[in-house]
Amino acid sequence: MVRPAGLFSSNAGVTAPGPYGGAWPSVGAGAVLLFLPAVLPDYYLYLMAGIFVAALLAVSLNFILGYGGLLQLSQATFYGAGGYAAALVLTRTGLPFWVVLPAGPLTAGVLALVTGWFCVRLRRLYFGMLTLALGQLVWALAGRWYAFTGGDNGISPIPLPGFLSSPRGGYYLALVVMLASLAVLYRLVRSPFGLTLQAIRDNPVRAAGVGIDVQKHQLTAFVVSGLFAGLAGVLHVVVAGSVDPSLLDWTKSAEVLIMLLLGGMATFIGPAVGAAILVLLSMVLGVYTGYWLLVLGLILVVLALFLPQGIVGFLEERLSEKNPADRAVR
Amino acid sequence: MSGKRHFTILAGLVSLALVAALVAGCGRTPAAGTGKVLKVGIIDAYSGPASSYAKDALDGFKLGVNEVAANGGPKIDFVTRDDQFNAAKDLSWAKELVMQEHVDVVAGLMNSAGALAVASYADQQKVPFITWESMSAQITGSHGGKYVFAMPPNTTMIGNADAKEMAGLPYTRYWLAGDDYDYGHSVVNSFWAALQKDKPGVQKLGTSWWPVGETNYTPYLNVIRAAKPDVLFAGTGGADMVSFLKAVQASGLNKQMAVLDHTATDPSTLKALGADAPVGVYGTSDYLSYYPATNANKDFVAAFKKAYGHGPGFPALYGYLTARFLGAAVQKAGGVNKTKLAEALSGMTIDSPVGPVTIRAGDHQLETPMFFGRTAVQAGRTTLVMKNPVEIPAAQIMPSLASVLASRKK
Amino acid sequence: MLRVEGITRSFSGFRALAGVGFDAERGRVTAVIGPNGAGKTTLFNVLTGHLKPDGGRILFQNNNIAGAKPHQVFRLGVARSFQLTNVFNRLTVLENVQVALLSRAGRSGSLSRGSLSECAARARELLDRVGLDGWAGQNAGRLSYGDQKLLEIGMALAGRPELLLLDEPTAGMSPEETAATAGLIRRLPGEGVTVLFTEHDMDLVFGLADKIVVLNQGLCIAQGPPDEVRAIAAVQKAYLGVEA
Amino acid sequence: MHLTLLASQFLIGLSVGMTLFVVAAGLTLIFGVLRVINFAHGSLYMLGAFLAYSVASFLGPAGFWPAMLIAPLVVALVSLGIERGLLRFIYDREHLIQILVTYGLVLVFSDLVQIVWGTGFKSLAPPPGLAGYVTVWGAALPRYNLFLFAVGILVAVGLALFLYRTRMGKICRATATDREMVDVLGVRSSRVFAAVFVLGGWLAGLGGALVAPTVSITPGMDVTIIIEAFLVVVIGGLGNVWGALVSSLILGAGESLGVLFLPRLAVAWPFFIAAVILIIKPSGLLKSVW
Questions:
Q1: Quick check: B16 contacting A, CB < 8 Å?
Q2: What global pTM score does this model have?
Q3: Considering CB atoms only, which of D120, D255, D264 is closest to B219?
Q4: How far is the alpha carbon of D15 from chain A, nearest alpha carbon, in Å?
Q5: Average pLDDT score over chain C
Q6: A37-326 fold
Q7: How far apart are CA D37 and CA D43, in angstroms?
Q8: How confident is residue B157, by pLDDT bands cut at 50, 70 and 90?
Q9: What local confidence, expressed as pLDDT, does residue B295 receive?
Q10: In chain A, which residue's Cα lies nearest the Cα of C116?
């Protein structure tokens, strides 16, 4: 992993006040996001909602990869599972919308429990490859089961309740769920559970040596990560209104990995920023060039060579250099 | 360092990026809806294995746009978006085109899943949507609507056409195979349903499904060969057609049984294969640049060759027809009002390189003929051609309107 | 306290442990010595569950713990440090100890930040005990080699172990650090901790140990008080003879 | 079901596996010695196919054999550029960074290939001597498949000779098991790394060129092969060339027999086989050199 830059390497377990004293910056930022729909045209609301979905997905992956140290190469499996569960509930049952909010993550969580149970026995790349193989099995199944999942045609349109069918409704739901989920994940990272997870990432053998049931802990983290990816999948259904097997494919997982690299894996919020950058880049650059993948590829190479800690990681390092007091544990 | 600070960083970066996007977006003038200029947003797979079709269709569309303008018709503007054959991307681009670019019409779309999602979205937003490549029968079927139009013959029509011709041949024992993908399954299923109706007593010996992008068909063909059917009916398309026909040729399967595949006689496939193409393979084509040898077709081919240096494939025909239909629709509707455009397109007939073609009023599926024949060597050409094509009129292959409308009731 | 009976363990045909048996008594410091390749580290790994023995029994307070998993062994009260340094590099020194404390308290899965602050004081106490109190906020990976070994002992002590296994605790340490570590080990029995350690430094072994177990080629060839062991001919031949 | 069908199906499967081996061998070699996860290996394979097509169409009917020679060499040159210009800077980085850098290359190459070669379908005919088929046990085995099988064996033998009989090969094996060994032996490790990467790239290019006459040469070939090659490398035991051989053959034969018994599951079959093997043997079939 990349060298940590601040956040979890310092004062975990210590309730120090923020360096800027109080919550005002956050409240300000929250207010901006809350009132953006008043001034932004529909398309930008849609785009923002898409960013929120991607941000949650990226942070969910970073939970298992950046904090858990497990080379999860198939996060899209759980994203897609959540999305498909939501789509199937909404199109095939008469259940109200609020059922899908738990149904999506639950489906993804169960899938994560089953696949994770096999995977946590394996190490590093073997672990990664097994997640990939099992993920592609799920992908193949979703793409072939025409009677149930609609096969490769996917499911569209997905009926949504009135208040969610506008870009504004999607924006608010995605915003609220994303913020709440990030808050929960952040608390998890800073909890004893999260600290232990990071200890396992640094040294699984030593962790077992101080009495930690490594595999059980990793499996729990795997499931938590899958749950939140599934929740992101539900949000995708709300924002896009359709699902198809490309949500589950390994190329989607690769996209999420790119978000992590862009933003920085060693920070909590980096992957979310990476998600925002990637979504915006793809939609803005895609308008101007047909060779968007070429541009993205070059960005990746340059970034990995010169800014492996990601954009947020880099900013944090700069900020920390200016405020050395931040580094010291109180 | 606190989490709050991270949140601030996130909000700051997102806002910055958003401002950048807004600035980028403002550079583009929303010209649409104002004058007589029709703005078309095109989404297609301009990268990846399917890009060959996408480019061909776009070339045809451009030719049509120029022709419409040259004949005193309305001016048609267009923008293109690359979906990398990804259905989720299709829908994003459709929303961008409708909400941001304010296009009057959305067109293109080869990916079936994407076409279906975009069809539903366009219909809901009351923006005309014309697919020029996707062959899913669901587009004008379960996902059809007032604003949804399909140019190419769909999988039901392909199955019907193939069944119609095969019923007249003395074969009874069939092996069914295809891409493990909606296109393959739909073509095979509709073919088999139609054939059982046209020729009771046909026998199905087995089925094989191979992945899209399969690189080695030998294991499949070996199993099929051992079952000794009279006919192998294959629903394979796109770039895989080249690999499939190579495997047929290499294992001599075409000498042991009749092989039939919808795009086997498609010129773009046969051109790639050159002398390596199997002889005597049955196929249907929706468009051949050399048949019918009418003046309309010859003129179209000549104009296309002049513009791009090579002949048109079937996607080019549908891109071209899309432009021609749109030009006529703007004239008929007297402007670019989206609802009036959709109403004008419904039931419209124009002359085309393959004769007069009509957008069926009931379901907005284009009524277009198909051509059936076998691959053969022709003196003086380096590539195989379809020998003595038989034209199957549209009326014989269109699905019944009743069945289409029934699929829309859910 | 600890009774090892007939432990065997092979690696693809090579018998690293060929039926080792010895005792370690409560409240004593026991040293395991032997030439390189005698099987000391393998023995430790078997004792703490990092390796499964092929046969034999490990009786810890009369329970057979052979084949138990490392985290189970730790929770029973057997902690260890490793020969090669083994800390959580990207966590702070304080957090390293907190992780061990949480584990010992069965709160590794806790979601409450409260448990973290609760154990902070005890963690500082332990750091104080191993002499690392000044480094609490430092990333463990940036500590010197000797300090990392001390941190390891601190983490092991966080488990309130009844039996502490130290695998070459002073290897790579400066003379001052070695002296400090020796002092620490000497104090442990008084705090109710039984110590089992391996070491190459014979002065340290004979200065610290109440009992010495000698391994050679996967077998225990002698055990007893330092003076007795020093006198046994087999030991001199196998081990001390080499030294001389 | 006839036993002969089973046998011929098995034989075909082995020939499919052998082609996979040629590609995977390069990947696992790079894994073992450089410890780099090269996602761009599939791109080099694709490049090999496109170059073979270009060379063969430039030279005309007799172009096949020169194409098989030239295309892999050009790919090897490109590999040298990649290694010297990029990869050598990330040898000590973690796996994920390596994956992302090489995935970046995948994206770059996929667009570059399209820019250079355009979008039309491309195909390369096998030479006259290798066209058609021979009948074995009642099955029609394409001559070209048999040729691929033979080349796979040649590559395996060649690699064995290289690894066990040449100084360079011995250094490679030593490096794979113990990194510090190279420096002890007094060899410039950067030379070894470059050589191995070039060899791996050459194998990828050879695989692409060899496969060209049996497929449609399109952008997108890269992703089809890379996942399967990765499965092979991992289930074989990372960095173990013979593991890659065994697992290639298992995957090839498994897929081929899968077509016979479970035709509906052809898509999922390789992933299923890989998952089962990894669950039973969590660190691959043969010993990993890592």
A1: no
A2: 0.89
A3: D255
A4: 23
A5: 85
A6: ABC transporter involved in vitamin B12 uptake, BtuC (1.10.3470)
A7: 13
A8: very high
A9: 94
A10: A13
